Amino acid sequence: MFNERLGVDEAEFLASTNGSIKIGIKFENWRQLGDSYIHTFGRYGLPINRVPFHHYWVKMRQLGDPTRFEDYTITHVAGEMDRFEIRPYDENSVRTNYLYALHFDAGLYAQYLRKGAEQRGVQRTEGNVVDVKLNGETGYIESVRLEDGETIAGDLFIDCSGFRALLSEGALQTGYEDWSHWLPCNRAWAVSTTYRDGTTAIPPYTRARALQAGWQWRIPLQNRTGDGHVFCNEYLDEEQARETLLENVEGETLFEPRLLKFRTGRRNKIWNKNCVAIGLAAGFLEPLESTSLFLTQLGIMRLIRCFPDLRFNPAQRDEYNFQIHEKFEEARDFLVLHYNATVRDDTPFWNYCRTMEVPEELKFRMDLFRARGHVACKPSELFIESSWLAVMVGQGLIPENYDPRVDGADESAVRELMSSMHAEIQQSATSMATHVETLATYCRGDLLVSAA
Amino acid sequence: MTEAAVKSIAIIGGQATGWTAAAALAQALQGQRIQITVLESASDPLDEPAASTLPQTIQFHWELGIKEPALMRAAHGTFKLGTEYRGWHGTDRDYFQPLAQHGANAGIAFHHAVNKLRMAGEAVPLNDFSLCAVAARAGKFSHPTDDPGSILASLRYGLHLDSTGYAGHLRQFATAFGVAVRTGEVRAVQVDDGGLIGSVTLTDGEQLAADFFVDCSGAEARLLGQALDVGLEDWSHWLPADRAVSLAGPPASDPAPCTIVMAQDAGWSRQVPLQDRVVHEFVFSEHGLAPDQATDLLLRMLPGGEASAVASRSFASGRRNAFWQGNCVALGRAAGGFEPLEICLLQLVQSGAQRLASLFPGRGGSPLLAREYNRLTAQEYENIRDFLVLQYRARNGRQTAFWQAAREASPPDSLAHKLALFESQGQASFNMQETFEPEAWVSAYIGQERWPDGYDLFLDKQDFEPIRQWLMQMRQFIRQAADAMPAHRALPRTVLPRRLGATRSVGASAGPGRSAQAGGQVSEPGHLLPVIGDDAAHLPGIQRIPPLVFATRTKEPPRILVPLDEPAGPFLALQAAEGRASNRPPEARIVTRLPEKRHQFPEEFQRFVEQVLVTQNQHRRVVLPGPAGHVHRP
Fold first, then answer.
1. How far is residue A125's CA from residue B400's CA, in Å, rounded to a whole number?
2. Quick one: average pLDDT of B70-97?
3. End-to-end Cα, chain A, rounded Å
4. Which of A304, A413, A424 sits opposite B458 (nearest CB)?
């Protein structure tokens, strides 16, 4: 959506960033060792009598129907076969009720955006900030001074300085809300690897494999994969974590793994005085559900909607902070769900996560879903109902009861309808092109994998 | 934890509140052998004699399968495109609150462009860009169309309904679903140690036991308030009106397609046009005016002064601390409520009943479901409260105690924030969960001439002249579209016979069904049915409602044409087959139109539908895939 707003052509964009399609994230070993599911951006089944589909699935499951929940979403079925096709979204058909996201090279993306911004008149200065001058009366930022002595003044400052938050924290001392008791991972090793010779398929999803004290990502691009190991250094030392990553990657590494250090949480006021923190300066959540770029883009789009004039109406700031803070919290709760809804008890890390006290609102959601299958989702929420369903069911949180309206529909008719959805999905998924074929025809970049 | 499933529901209180609850629950919970009983009595409070609803009501009726033409007949309904406020802001200035948003958003919320134009010295009323407002002021009405390219698709409408007629219609609907009726009044309520209601004792000594209770007993809140002791949060310091007198005046020859609200010294009055009468109300505070005085004032405003059905009611603005506690949910005045400004009680009952249906306890989760219900309902009430408080902050210069007190009360924090946010650059708080959408807030701010002294700065990044021209064109286009719309006054007469098959498909032959229309009462022999074909475009249409069309010739058996190529086609097909479709004569034949490309359903499902149609099995349950029921917003 962000790209659309910038007028970016998707195919061209993917080709120039060696991007690929992402139907979701495959979670391996999260619920328990040996188990996996994909959180896809597809809908599950079609509502029946205006009651969400999953309630019918819960009933049929109770009656002994073994069909997996994920068999009712075409992206999952196709994704398991490394198939993907772009189809116009239509929520009334199980063939087309899905959206998709993208994998791309972030470095190339930054270059791409920089070029576009400079073409539109953005002036670029290189340098390190050594001092920030605040207004003595209002405490607003007036200017920043660079190493070479140059001073840059501004009315509005956007702090994109990463974890350090040079302006927001360094100068304004905004403060940080620490969430590491809910999301204890605080380190990540990142590396890139080649595809092994003879690779014939690119999965249309990110892999997130749970390990002993964290998890490992694998993001498939057209010419390489991005890999990384997110972990908590209280449970695993850095060197061991590095070795684990290198043991687990499939091809040749392209550079030495780089270590990132972070603390999960959010700035107390993402917009403080005349400074808006965007990106890591605003807060950090591990990349498990790819919320980082999303929150960055949302932060920008909301700023555009609430763009101030020189009066800096405080109500604009409050409105902005309310909305962005809420999104951070929604993302946080969604991540915590992955760690907490598990039966894993094989390491101290997982024991901690399984037994920790989760945020109150998340607990309520989990309880309500378990008791009655209702997803307490707000209409404007970051992760929509189908995402919550995918992860809750995937993590083994199966409702004990379903919406009573389900019993109002004739059981055999429901069964018939569900099996027809299932069959249609199977048939339609099998007829899809492979992900590699789609990349080759839609957005070929340095595609180094050829279809089988 | 698995609980025992609810097998019986007692709805305490009839009238529009009780029967709306009964209809919504019966429809949602059909097929489960849950016995729903409504306890009604002649002394159930009527509360609002007429309802002036929001567009959400159209969606409600669609979801229940309540057909608009029959409903409009039963409730003497007229259509509503908004509310006209007279003398509300400044004694001689009127404003109009349309039910649809202004203009069209092109990346930047629409009103910014009009504000920029104003700040450049070219002030154009914002309502010139509202087809609802322009049409309403010209006395025009049309249903929205489905064609996204048509400006008519931007219309949204509500209904003016006679509450008693509405209650009767929903009573019929609910009892057809098997809802039982008991006559009587509550004498006592039996609450067990766990805080659950077991039964109520009626004045005749009989008991009415149930697993779940819906308190529709009005302001007394016999169950939730009295028996379960759930208190009321009082909002009267923000919303001072606590009393209304109403009476019925003669029907308008030219009923406005809008509610008319007029500021008065001691409160405000309104006119709700119905087909058979106009309901006049005076809403005020008992501290400033006696009901008799209010009635006199109201009578003086009546043309001709002929009035009937004089009634008076008192109410308190506020909400229950909990709407659902234990096994009891309160709906209507028992849950709290407002004065009948912008929102009507019926609207809250409809949304509450639907929320209850979607969170109805099965075998588990009651306390959690109650918590979710209470959270959502509290939000709904608070957002509405803020919107009403905003209306009272109009600077109309009236120096009476009523207005001064309301103006001077400091607003709720949430409203103060919204006002402050809008003030500088015209930003509307963005919240998708509100009954009143950001655009409605913008209409209200601008109606009160709270033009911000700034606008979205991104407008300055574009050449303004093309935008200006676009605005001027749109303005003209809206005027032309309104001119071309039919007059609202023609509708109560033309719409109904049309639906009865008297105007187009059947030709002009005076069939037996046409005779009564002149008298305002339409008799409805079984073989005279709603009309077919291109009239479908006129069916109520916020949602895509396909034509459930009935062809009719007096001598031929009627046909019900079911377009299976429409999203809700199979739904209607099954309704028809089940005999639930309104006006379906027993001898009707069902004819289907099969899907071509769009809206394909699984083949098996199509076969299933057809099979049902062929066998016309009366008891087969409805199963259909369909849209999740979101409102299509033009």
1. 62
2. 90
3. 33
4. A304
If one counts every other C-beta atom within 10 angstroms of the C-beta of residue B474, the result is 19
Q: ipTM score here? A: 0.93
Instruction: Please return the burial class of B473, using the count of CB atoms within 10 Å of its CB with bins 0-12, 13-18 and 19+.
Output: exposed
Calculate the alpha carbon distances from A382 to A100, A202, A421, B154, B332 in Å. Answer: 15, 27, 27, 28, 33
CB-CB under 8 Å, B432 with A380: yes
Angle separating helix axes A53-62 and A411-430, nearest 10 degrees: 110
Name the DSSP letter for residue A74: H
B321 to B219, B336, B388: CA distances (angstroms): 14, 9, 20
As given in the structure block, the two tokens for residue B183 are 């006559």
Length of chain B in terms of residues written? 634
Return the residue in A417, A418, A421, A426 with the most chain B beta carbons within 10 A, the one to mutate for interface testing: A417
- CA atoms of B510 and A253, how far apart (whole Å): 87
Which residue on chain A is closest to B454 by alpha carbon?
A309
- Give the A:B interface size as CB pairs under 8 Å: 163
- Bridge-based pairing state of the strands A187-193 and A225-231: antiparallel
Return the pLDDT at B565.
45
State which amino acid sits at residue B634.
P
Q: Hey, is B158 helix, strand or coil? A: strand
Is-contact B426 B454, C-beta < 8 A?
A: yes
Tell me the backbone φ, ψ of residue A62, rounded to 5 degrees.
-65, -30
SS3 assignment, position B238: coil
Nearest C-alpha of chain B: how many angstroms from A354? 21
**Which residue, among B424, B460, B603, B632, would best test binding to A if mutated, counting the most A CBs under 10 Å from its CB?**
B424
- Give backbone dihedrals phi and psi of A124, rounded to 5 degrees, phi first: -110, 130
Q: B623: which chain A residues are within 8 Å (Cβ-Cβ)?
A: 48-49, 409-410, 413-414, 417
A230 Cβ neighbours under 8 A, 6+ residues apart: A185, A187, A188, A214, A215, A216, A217, A286, A287, A288
- Between CA B491 and CA B81 the distance in angstroms is 14
How confident is the model over B391-422, as pLDDT tens digits? Answer: 998 887 888 999 988 888 899 999 999 999 99
Nearest-Cα distance to chain A for B438, in Å, is 13
Q: Strand order of the sheet with strand A225-231?
A: A36-40, A24-28, A205-211, A214-220, A225-231, A187-193, A258-261
> What contacts B490, CB < 8 A, 6 or more positions away?
none
Provide the token pair at A308. Answer: 């101030």
Report residue A184 CA to chain centroid gap: 18
Nearest one of B628, B634, B631 to B543, comparing CA atoms: B631
**Partner residue facing B623 (CB), from A315, A318, A417:** A417
Sheet holding A141-146, edge to edge: A129-134, A141-146, A151-153
CA distances from B461 to A120, A123, B108, B156 (A): 12, 17, 12, 32
For residue A361, which amino acid is it? E
Q: What's the CA gap between B559 and B592, in Å, rounded?
A: 10
Contacts of A155 in chain B (CB under 8 A): none
pLDDT digits 0-9 by tens, A262-310 = 999 999 999 999 999 999 999 999 999 988 888 998 999 889 888 999 9
Identify the residue among A322, A368, A382 best suited for mutation to test binding to B, counting B beta carbons within 10 A and taking the highest: A368
